[in-house]
Fold this protein.
Amino acid sequence: MMKAGFACTCVDDILRATKALSLRHSEWLPAVKAARGASAIAYRVLECPLLQTNSAGGVVDLDHIDQVIVVFCPLFLLIIRAYNHVAVLIDIETSSAQEHGRQSRFDLDSYGGLWGSLGNGRIRCGNYYNGLPMDPQQWRQSLRTLLKSDIHGLDLTKRGNEGNSYIYHHNGLWDFLQEMKSRLLAGNLTILLDSGVVPHNSEVDTQQLVEVVEQFLKDLVIA
């Protein structure tokens, strides 16, 4: 059962992102927006209250987690493929800009913006980078740095309410993978199997799928 008063759209959001990534864009901008939009959805899914464990270590909604497992892993593979494709298109656009002697404009909002703590107004780096003109190589490096932060996450120094500084880690795809392994497999999938919500032979298949995702992510290198 869903939590009272909470309408979860995780599965619908994942399916929508999967459909968007099934279109292999030939232009760099829609490709960037689709790839980063899917990463933002992955971030929100793993923050979903219905995927959290309660104080006793049990899951909130077994049926919901079962649905998410089924659709999340394939989306993850599509995201990785999309980032590889985006990196190629960025290089093509950079070469074109250099050839025609034009500047490139870095527009963070057009690239999907920021999410999580980076996008909720407390960190305003997006205000500076929106619409900033750059030479093609600087634009290429800036956009690839943005993509790398999506993949590996980002460590930021933040200031607490009492003036103390601390390191905040903004999650990336690697963090999503670890969350998926620990939350959806190590803990919750065992409960799903024991409860009979999913058959016991699902454990091997799901584990293999996660291993495939991990290998694809290891092969994703954006310099």
